[in-house]
Specification:
- By secondary structure, the chain is an alpha+beta fold.
- It has three helices and seven strands; from the N terminus they run βββββββααα.
- The N terminus is likely disordered.
Length: 131
């Protein structure tokens, strides 16, 4: 089963877990093809745009792809010392973020609600949320 973390960044290398098909349902890339996330969805649950080495772009749901490094680890293609070093690096990153991040005691639910309502209304009107 795929590692379902929706917060992938543009530039993340991914492995397609499905066949990538073009027009007329023709096979463009087999399952296991590696691509790069070119665009992330604005809304959770929507598709990511993935660009393959030949320039072909295809939209995939998060469950239809796996982060390349996770895929290699699961298949046993990464030696244990490298996996363990990565684990320790991530642990240090998390500890550093915990020590340096100043979060309020409680989330500001009202501010979050105002933002989400405004964003949804703007999106319905076709207003761009960025730039």
């Amino acid at each position: 089963m795929a590692h379902h973390t929706d917060n992938l960044s543009a530039g993340t290398q991914v492995v397609s877990l499905v066949e990538v098909r073009g027009t007329n349902n023709s096979l463009v890339h087999p399952r296991g093809a590696v691509g790069v996330v070119a665009r992330t969805p604005a809304v959770a649950g929507e598709k990511f745009l993935v660009r393959f080495p030949d320039g072909f772009e295809f939209s995939l749901h998060r469950g239809q792809m796996e982060v390349l490094k996770h895929f290699a680890v699961k298949r046993g293609e990464v030696p244990w010392p490298e996996v363990d070093a990565w684990r320790k690096e991530l642990h240090c990153d998390f500890e550093g973020a915990l020590a340096e991040t100043k979060l309020p005691e409680r989330p500001d639910y009202e501010a979050a609600n105002r933002f989400l309502i405004r964003a949804r209304r703007d999106m319905a009107k076709g207003v761009s949320l960025c730039c």
